[in-house]
Recover the amino acids of this structure.
């Protein structure tokens, strides 16, 4: 199966590029896939006409007039595909290209009905492809229009027969059933091919829509500069974290972080340097904490970390000091060294509060206390513990 699939796929890609001037993988929107169906069906139309002009005369006996009619049919089909594909490639007008192709298609196959026996013509049922194509490649209104056209052609041919009009029958009676079988097989292949391509289009569009929705969801919940979760994502996660901590009677640490004199860095070195600093700080925060910890950017130079499943207040304090030291390492930007510091405020659930707003107020107040006192880390009130943690971690624990 695989050796056959590869050349077929290459032939399809080559034909699409020839007709549109673009790669079959260049786009993934609805317009692209409708053009793809049009191009693939045009190729099928050429193959069908080739079968009637070349293959059928080799299988069944056809009169010289029949051979002429088959060649005319093939020439008309080639002309229709050529004109419509040129219009599609040069002007990218899918609807106009479709209408031209269907106009020549129905005209050629209607004319063939006069040479192949009217309603007994193999091309009589193949006219059904026109409204099917109009509906899939065009629109519902276009499908209805071409459906009425085909219905009118069928009725006219049928009424002409009933009123005694004699159509030519250049297929000998002995080969008529075989010719009709080939025609119905071609019709079945055409319909199945259109359905398969249409299903592929829907599948690709659904995948594209899902990927777009996932990207939009990520953009709505993450900061574009640092790629960290934003305030919206943080609000959703911290509520879950506090609920889990309450159910498990555990501790959860909330760390508010703010860079000191960040405005001066922007004013002195430019916003580009400030952006690189924020990205570096985000990476350092993530690298210093556990994978299970939530790190988010609240805005500007403010960051937050939520530490779940910690065993003691001392562990939270140790992580806060480790985090502060990692953040404050010098940063080289444009061959210049940026020295900066960070203030970290720590609040612990349930010691400093059980509600989100209580913990945020405590952590925010502790952060500004650290900034005011020139300390890297400040803890909210820990009166509920027997051994309050120091503002600075002991050197042997860092």
């Amino acid at each position: 199966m695989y050796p056959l699939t590869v050349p077929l796929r290459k032939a399809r890609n080559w034909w699409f590029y020839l007709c549109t001037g673009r790669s079959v993988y260049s786009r993934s929107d609805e317009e692209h896939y409708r053009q793809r169906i049009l191009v693939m069906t045009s190729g099928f139309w050429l193959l069908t006409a080739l079968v009637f002009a070349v293959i059928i005369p080799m299988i069944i006996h056809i009169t010289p007039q029949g051979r002429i009619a088959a060649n005319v049919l093939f020439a008309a089909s080639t002309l229709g595909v050529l004109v419509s594909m040129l219009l599609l490639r040069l002007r990218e007008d899918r609807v106009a290209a479709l209408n031209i192709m269907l106009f020549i298609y129905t005209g050629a196959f209607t004319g063939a009905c006069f040479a192949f026996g009217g309603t007994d013509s193999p091309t009589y049922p193949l006219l059904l492809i026109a409204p099917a194509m109009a509906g899939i490649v065009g629109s519902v209104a276009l499908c209805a229009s071409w459906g009425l056209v085909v219905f009118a052609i069928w009725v006219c041919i049928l009424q002409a027969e009933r009123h005694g009009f004699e159509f030519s029958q250049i297929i000998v009676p002995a080969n008529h059933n075989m010719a009709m079988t080939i025609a119905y097989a071609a019709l079945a292949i055409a319909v199945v091919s259109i359905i398969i391509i249409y299903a592929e289009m829907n599948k690709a569009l659904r995948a594209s829509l899902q990927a777009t929705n996932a990207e939009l969801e990520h953009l709505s919940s993450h900061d574009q500069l640092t790629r960290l979760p934003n305030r919206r994502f943080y609000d959703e996660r911290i509520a879950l974290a506090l609920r889990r901590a309450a159910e498990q009677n555990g501790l959860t640490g909330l760390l508010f972080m703010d860079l000191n004199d960040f405005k001066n860095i922007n004013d002195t070195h430019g916003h580009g340097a400030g952006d690189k600093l924020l990205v570096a700080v985000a990476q350092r925060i993530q690298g210093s904490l556990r994978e299970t910890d939530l790190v988010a950017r609240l805005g500007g130079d403010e960051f937050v970390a939520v530490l779940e499943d910690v065993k003691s207040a001392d562990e939270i304090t140790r992580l806060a000091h480790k985090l502060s030291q990692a953040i404050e390492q010098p940063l080289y930007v444009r061959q210049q060294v940026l020295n900066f510091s960070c203030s970290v405020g720590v609040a612990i659930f349930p010691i400093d509060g059980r509600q989100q707003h209580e913990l945020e107020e405590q952590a925010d107040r502790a952060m500004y206390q650290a900034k005011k006192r020139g300390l890297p880390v400040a803890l909210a009130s820990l009166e509920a513990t027997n051994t309050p943690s120091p503002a600075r971690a002991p050197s042997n624990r860092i």
